[in-house]
Amino acid sequence: MRIEELPSPCYVIDEGLLEKNLKILNGVMERTGSKILLAQKAFSMFKMYPLIGKYLSGATASGLYEARLGHEEMGKENHIFSPVYREDEIDEIISICDHIVFNSFSQLEKFKDKALAAGRSVGLRINPECSTQVSHAIYDPCTPGSRFGVTIANFRQDLLDGVSGLHFHTLCQQNSNDLETTLMAVEEKFGPWLSQMKWINFGGGHYITEEDYNIQLLENCIKRMKDKYGLKVYLEPGEAVAYNAGYLVTTVLDTLQNGIDIAILDTSATCHMPDVLEMPYRPPLLGSGAAGEKSFLYRLGGQTCLTGDTIGDYSFDQPLKSGDRLVFENMAVYTMVKNTSFNGMPLPAIVVLDQAGEYHIVREFDYKDFKMRLS
Ligand SMILES: *Cc1c(COP(=O)(O)O)cnc(C)c1O
């Protein structure tokens, strides 16, 4: 099967590129004795969990359903952090998660005994109040008034009984110098309690598989926490696991003019790549250039009625015409886990490109998937 023959739109996950990332992450684990978990919220394509489980220590979840998926499909270490747990789900969470991280002392007090009685490792999320990013405020858990993690002003040394790990998550697409800065804040504020813990979880947002990432500095940070406090170190990247390992294959359905040439695609930013609008960012598109770089400029728009459903302005060597295939890059993470059928948009099929260069359609969606969630 060739790319022209795939259903459009479809997400294509490139197994070779995914494995390349996994080998980089596994290298960090091997050299430092740390453990790396898949943060499923970025990438929950469970078809790939056996491959991911070959290289990583397990998975982490944002809630019960992701925890179940990790338990059923990966079956290795299964961690969970949620800003709050419900009474009616905590028993099931305790039955399938080996590490349970609480966001507050009240949640800890409410559920810790149950978790400990089941032999689970209990952690507490701390908030080091150290913002190291300015560009994506909605992804900054250290922003003032954030609901994430216990700040030092609200820390209760007297309630630490049974807590064996501290967890922080403050980064988003960031390099290890920001981790180093954050660790200094963690040590400065929470240092007195670190050596009474068994583990520390550095959260996600480490851009480890990105070209410019300083892996050596990450490894120094891990070793420092290990040597100074005797801690086992966990990392739980989402994006770095499948960074640049997938595509969204789309088709031009029409072109029109309104001061600028416009192409309407059989996809949608808001439905199929929501972070394009939320973050926001301009996804790379194979064979295209920035505005002004190539001769023919188009604004690429989605199929929905939302005016802002545009992907960006791109230039091409040839004019676009209906039927042309356009392939967006870096579409594995935060895409299929976040897509919606707003406007009754069909969901993209899911395809694997294996290491031999063969495409396999692993999932297709239809009208039933739209109707099923409504009544
Ligand atoms: C989002 C999140 C992650 C993963 O973040 P990435 O930016 O995808 O690496 C890990 N842990 C927690 C607690 C998160 O909220």
Automatic annotation (TrEMBL):
UniProt cross-references to Pfam families, sorted A to Z: Orn_DAP_Arg_deC (PF00278)
The molecular function terms of the Gene Ontology recorded here are: lyase activity
| Source organism, top-level taxon | Bacteria
- EC number of this enzyme: 4.1.1.96
Keywords associated with the record? Decarboxylase, Lyase, Pyridoxal phosphate, Spermidine biosynthesis
Q: Does the keyword Lyase apply?
A: yes
InterPro entries given in the database record: Ala_racemase/Decarboxylase_C (IPR009006), De-COase2_C (IPR022643), Nsp_de-COase (IPR005730), PLP-binding_barrel (IPR029066)
Cofactors: pyridoxal 5'-phosphate
Q: Which residues cross the membrane?
A: none
**Could you tell me which residue ranges the Orn/DAP/Arg decarboxylase 2 C-terminal domain spans?**
11-331
Q: Does the keyword Lyase apply?
A: yes
Instruction: Output the NCBIfam families linked to this UniProt entry.
Output: nspC
The record's section on PANTHER family has: CARBOXYNORSPERMIDINE_CARBOXYSPERMIDINE DECARBOXYLASE, DIAMINOPIMELATE DECARBOXYLASE
> Protein name, please?
Carboxynorspermidine decarboxylase
What high-level taxonomic lineage is stated for the organism? Bacteria, Bacillati, Bacillota, Bacilli, Bacillales
Supply the gene name: nspC
